[in-house]
From TrEMBL:
PANTHER family: RNA POLYMERASE I-SPECIFIC TRANSCRIPTION INITIATION FACTOR RRN11 (PTHR28244). GO terms for molecular function: RNA polymerase I core promoter sequence-specific DNA binding; RNA polymerase I general transcription initiation factor activity; TBP-class protein binding. One of its GO terms (cellular component) is RNA polymerase I core factor complex. GO terms for biological process: nucleolar large rRNA transcription by RNA polymerase I. This is Uncharacterized protein. InterPro entries: RNA_pol_I-specific_init_factor, TIF_Rrn11.
Length: 214
């Protein structure tokens, strides 16, 4: 079969037709990887990825999202804490080693930190990068920063109309600033608009967004 007759399920790893048997096998293995991920066959997906990542033709760093997805998938429920920590550690390493993808990796890192309950660390990461370009013009990062800041501004106990004073108003103002920045960069951002209106209501004495975090 000539190289022009090869067909593959997924288009990636370059759009050119493979010109030797090794490259054909790599493309076939990539198809297997993607199919296994779709079917949530994590054991076979991890095995296929372990082989692909060792191939010189595959830039595994550029496919960091695949590594994050497979890292810990299929693990036991009682291993979730360790799985989240492993993913955070991997993404932190990728932030340093793959600067061209740092903006996208930062978004994933923040989400993983939030998922792991490490909200303050997530905010620290955002505070580190948001003042500089290109992060300062990323509306998604500003929305994340606004949401995390708003979460941290909550009182530790359940709030009622008598306990609104226990909210950290400095953090509420910081959250408002992030939502406003997101709206400036992306006027169609409905998430920023929705939370911004709630934050403004809070400053006017309304209930402090308790509904958003229950």
């Amino acid at each position: 079969m000539s190289s022009s007759e090869y067909s593959f399920i997924f288009s990636s790893l370059g759009s050119k037709q493979p010109n030797n048997t090794r490259k054909v096998h790599i493309r076939r293995l990539y198809d297997i990887l993607k199919l296994c991920i779709q079917r949530q066959d994590w054991a076979r997906a991890k095995h296929a990825w372990a082989i692909l990542a060792r191939c010189r033709e595959v830039d595994w760093k550029a496919m960091w999202s695949t590594s994050v997805l497979l890292l810990g998938e299929g693990g036991a429920q009682d291993e979730l804490t360790q799985i989240n920590e492993d993913r955070v550690r991997f993404l932190s390493i990728m932030m340093r080693q793959h600067p061209d993808e740092r903006e996208s990796i930062l978004k994933e890192l923040v989400l993983r930190l939030i998922h792991a309950g490490m909200h303050r660390r997530a905010l620290e990461q955002l505070d580190l990068y948001l003042p500089s370009y290109p992060y300062q013009d990323n509306p998604v990062l500003h929305v994340y920063a606004g949401l995390v800041t708003l979460y941290l501004a909550q009182p530790e106990n359940d709030v009622s109309s008598e306990t609104n004073y226990s909210w950290d108003l400095n953090l509420v103002r910081d959250a408002q600033a992030h939502f406003e920045r997101a709206r400036i960069v992306d006027p169609s951002n409905v998430v920023a608009e929705a939370f911004l209106s709630q934050v403004k209501s809070a400053h006017e004495g309304a209930h402090m967004l308790t509904w958003a975090f229950r």
